[in-house]
Amino acid sequence: MGAILAIDLGDKYWGLAKSDDDQKLAFPFATWNIAEIRQCKQSVSEKLSALCQSEQISELVIGLPLNLQGNDTNQTRRVRNLTDDIKKLLDMPVILFDERYTTKEAARFPGSDKAKINAQAAQIFLQSYLDSQQKNHV
Predict the structure, then answer these.
(1) CA neighbor of 115 nearest in space, from 41, 35, 5
(2) Residue 118 and residue 9: Cα distance in Å, rounded?
(3) Distance, CA of 46 to CA of 102 (rounded, Å)
(4) pLDDT at residue 39 above 60?
(5) pTM over the 0.85 mark
(6) pLDDT for res 101
(7) Are strands 94-98 and 26-33 parallel, antiparallel or unpaired?
(8) How far is CA 104 from CA 65, 99, 107, 112, in A?
(9) 133/103 Cα distance (integer angstroms)
(10) Angular region, 134: left φ>0, alpha ψ -120 to 50, beta rest
């Protein structure tokens, strides 16, 4: 099966969460400071590709930031464009999944700070995705 990686694509930080190999539980994995990555002259795409290989990721789930009514916003369009670029880079399924309310929910976690919130938000929507996949296979 292999693990699933989820990404919360923020403007400054990308939050990453990873499932277990059985694809039942999600865990916060990392937070990437996008400006720091670029300062190291490494592309975010290269870092993502290397991570997927080293962690044996079988699928990527990207949070889709719809507004409260379920419509696209400027941020949604940016995420869709980034997702198109990522799909060209990776040879695996890349899924967009509704991430509404996850950042607000993550901010309520004890000990949350700005650097951790994106990874916790990714964990929340990845767990929702995993749960929805389990329901579809019952």
Answers:
(1) 35
(2) 8
(3) 27
(4) yes
(5) yes
(6) 67
(7) unpaired
(8) 12, 10, 5, 11
(9) 22
(10) alpha
